[in-house]
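Most newcomers find our protein records easier to grasp once they have seen one. The structure tokens are whole numbers drawn from a learned vocabulary of backbone shapes. The record below serves as our worked example for the rest of this section.
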Amino acid sequence: MSKKYHIYGLGNALVDIVTEVDDDFFTRYSIEKGVMTLVNETRQHELIEAIHLPDSDRQCGGSAANTIISASQFGSRCFYSCKIANDEMGHFYLRDLVANHVDTNLNGAGLADGITGRCLVMTTADAQRTMNTFLGITSDFSPKELHEEAIRDSHYVYIEGYLVASEMGREAMKVAKSMAEKHGVKTALTFSDPSMIKYFKKEMREVVGKGVDMLFCNEEEACLFTGTDNILEARERLKYFAKKFAITLGANGASIFDGDTFVDIEPYRVNAVDTNGAGDMFAGAFLYGITHGHTYAEAGKIASLASSRVVAKFGPRLKANQVREIVDALFKVE
């Protein structure tokens, strides 16, 4: 059945402000390394001032947005529901979505008063990324931002796990999942960050409900969610929550369950400089693959190569020509 969109995504709209810091910076400012921490505007401004960050180091972001944009770059038709404010960063965000050929609930709509969310992404020499996020107006993301017609006209609804941190965000996750199920649309969920399971495990399980069609997570998130201490046991327990899933394993590649068997995806060796956006890219490339006739093993290869290219550079995105080269490298017929 032909549909207008391959993927409908929903998540927090954040302008990513990306910079490099050293571990001493985390010590001086009492920052928990390697996770996402929600902060208020004053705290985020304090950190930005301390880093002396140039205003130009920014891009349209948020976990699900990065996934949707990467899928669009590969060739997927995508829709993204989010909430931005009528300010300079909000207009910057919308322009970036449009430039990446992503339809949105904001098209033709007036933007609300408030402050567009921002995420300070701090990378370190060991390639880890640490995020301090001021949600701004996206903290009010709710079912009002959903577009049921676009959901009905999609193959997959992709839900960002970060939304679980707010009551209205959780409601939006549940309503989007319900709408998708009502219209026979497959559901995909990403846990987004270990902190979302660590602090909102009960709420995340409520969102998962009777299960999702596709789940994306990393090894730590899989173990936290299932209450296990090893990946082999965790992936067996995940079968109760997702029909199919992909567990990213960092430098060890990924483990994919295609509904019948596990497929081990080999990593592509690179010199990692920034892990920011690796999981988002993996999900976007994978969803492109399975909605364009590729097997789960083939989609895993696309996703693994794409995420390896992302960690070898700063920032969560690749350029359009780099994305095309990935598919050509794997599947081009001479």
Summary: The chain has a mean pLDDT of 91. The domain at 5-11+64-94+140-331 is CATH 3.40.1190.20 (UDP-N-acetylmuramoyl-L-alanine:D-glutamate ligase). Residues 94 and 106 are 8 Å apart (CA to CA).
